[in-house]
What does this fold into?
Amino acid sequence: MKTLFGGIYNGKTVLVTGHTGFKGSWLSYWLQKLGANVIGYSLNIPTNPSHIELLDMNIISIEGDIRDQHKLNSVFESYKPDIVFHLAAQPLVRYSYINPVETYEVNVIGTLKVFEACRQSESVRAIVNITSDKAYENKEWVWGYREIDPMGGYDPYSASKGCAELVTSSYRRSYFNIEKYDKDHHVLLASCRAGNVIGGGDWGKDRLIPDIMIAASSEKKVSLRNPDAIRPWQHVLEPLSGYLHLGWKLLEGERRFAQGWNFGPSDDAVRVQEVVESARFYWSKIEYEIDGEGHPHEAKMLKLDCSKAHTQLRWRDVWDLQTTIEKVTKWYQAFYENAYVNTYHDLCAYIEAAKMKKIFWAVNV
Ligand SMILES: NC(=O)c1ccc[n+]([C@@H]2O[C@H](COP(=O)([O-])OP(=O)(O)OC[C@H]3O[C@@H](n4cnc5c(N)ncnc54)[C@H](O)[C@@H]3O)[C@@H](O)[C@H]2O)c1
It folds into this structure.
């Protein structure tokens, strides 16, 4: 596995913020298999069960707040990371309505402080900042958003991610300008906007897949709040392969990749209810009811245009939606019925499928 992504991660020191969360745990796990020395920096473990606790990992895990500049700086000084994947965030829309100040503080000021730690560090060469597809000003139209579309956001979470993109753009021009790369500084900064990510090991609150699987595990019906919401669903490994691909190119000093990127599925975005129906095919304990009244506003229609990642980065998604839903459902079924954690198995299957499809990061070894 160490030869994937040109073998760039083998022996590198990689700092992952938000490593105790859903995406961060999968990313840290994959990075470790790629031979990286992973330093995780997060608040305490956010869920119980917790994916990171279920994985057998040998990484350095630091408990800290990204708003704590002093602590961040000391971690950068001690471990001297080559690259930073910034995933720590308050990522929940409904929670953001109740806690807007905390959401902006963590997602905007926290991001700013991570960038400041990078700016003061001698070692960092690349930053991959994770925002969201919700960072785009949502027009409720049928087309996918492109990287040139304006940032925005109705709810506090979406707007905070739009703000985090503006901070990224400002830092890229002010401090990590590609024209001055290798002269005044040595950092390339990119940001990633991915769609709705699903996978085993997510126990985040008010998220569709955890809600479905927790209900099924106790033979209850899940309530669907937005059955008609249309989202670009993808397996968690899809955007992670995009982040790793981008990190690889930034570490190689390819300044043209220091920009914003969309990573989404090639399959059409589909309705929430269709996802649940498909999951039921793989685990018959899944049952649902519609509870569509009285919920705060969430975007109805959200799609991404990923032409830029396909053509310029040569990144492609690997699994279609059916395969994704099958893998995700079986992950939870194996966990709840047999106490088995399928993460390694899913990772290997994903890499094999990427090799079969001759995806650039998998075959360019
Ligand atoms: N899951 C999705 O569908 C999705 C979609 C688009 C974008 N994203 C983005 O991807 C990133 C990761 O999301 P996730 O789904 O893994 O979320 P998660 O809630 O599972 O994990 C969030 C992580 O951030 C950490 N964290 C939160 N506040 C912190 C703080 N103040 N200081 C330090 N650490 C803090 C948590 O401890 C946890 O490790 C986030 O930036 C999120 O906005 C997620």
In short: The chain has a mean pLDDT of 95. The chain is about 40% helix and 15% strand. The pocket of nicotinamide-adenine-dinucleotide is lined by residues 18, 20-24, 42-43, 46, 65-67, 87-91, 106, 110, 130, 132, 194, 196-197, 204 (CB under 6 Å). The chain has one domain: 9-363.
